[in-house]
Amino acid sequence: MLDALHRLISLLDEPMLIPQLAPLIQQELIVRLLTGPHASHLWRLVNAAGPTQQLARAVTWIRQHFTEGMRVEDLAECANMSPTTFRQHFRTITGISPVQFQKLLRLQEAQQLMLDQNMSAATASALVGYESASKFNREYRRLFGARHRRQTFIESCLNDAFFFRVHRINVTGSARRFACHSSTIHA
């Protein structure tokens, strides 16, 4: 093997021969690596990175298309895995299922739309791919622990620098109660 590597490096002295001989020597090196005494270690190294790289393609696709419908079978095909193997590897690496990952991306994006653009929950949920407003409300509350209307109301008051005084609007299930007062704070 060292002889083949030496021949490949020696080609640098003869640049005219590189296009014809370099691919042949490279192929020889690959064959020697895959059939040599350390081949089993090399195979383990290659296979260890395999599922992670395959799943990276699927995760990238989910991130770019989270508002669209998604079938795990299609994602598994994208990763060159069976659906069962794909689900197992996905859960092992991310800690959640592919469907939960998509749901998380949708809910986070909807929250950003409601907070940053003062968008209604119905509009935000539709933009991120929810077909049912009640399902969105249920999942939003489960993840963020607050109803989006109250959170949006409170955040918009904070963003507009309104003064808060104690009143009767429950914030994210805590005992604190706030209401927005019409006087603005001048900085």
Quick description:
It is built from nine helices and two strands.
| Average pLDDT over all residues | 78
Instruction: Tell me the strand order in the biggest sheet.
Output: 1-2
Q: Shape, please?
A: elongated
The CATH class assignment of the largest domain is Mainly Alpha
Number of strands: 2
> What is the N-to-C succession of helices and strands?
HHHHHHHHHEE
Radius of gyration: 28 Å
Model regions low in confidence, pLDDT < 50 over at least 5 residues: 159-187
Please count the helical segments. 9
CATH architecture of the largest domain: Orthogonal Bundle
How helix-rich are the residues, as a percent range? Answer: 55-70%
> Strand portion, in percent?
5-15%
Distance between the termini: 73 Å
Structural class call reads mainly alpha
The biggest beta sheet reads: 2 strands, antiparallel
Count of discrete structural domains: 3
